[in-house]
User: What shape does this take?
Amino acid sequence: TDTTESLISPSKLKALGDLVDVNGLTSNNYLKIGGLYIQWMTVSFTAQENNIQYGTFPTAFPTACLNCQLVMELNVGANMDGALYIRNTSTTQVGFQFMHVSANNYGTGTAHILAIGH
Assistant: This one.
């Protein structure tokens, strides 16, 4: 309740807490710091050539998705010689596709996605 600042005042500590919005630390969620959003999610995929698959962000970016990255994790028994790549992004979702290196690809996996925007 004291208004004298030593390290940080209670009002400035509250202002910092109001600025940072952590919407829960789960496998599909986001962190908002001011106007910056950092989002993460996991999406199941199937290894299918020429098939764009989509993941919907935990919350829509108000203006734009600036950067999006993904990593592929194969499920047990999957036999995939290829890679996932991002086809497109919007304020609400990311489209990704599996690219085969050889014809003997099958199986499923999980895409781990990290996106940053405002």
Summary: The longest helix spans residues 10-19.
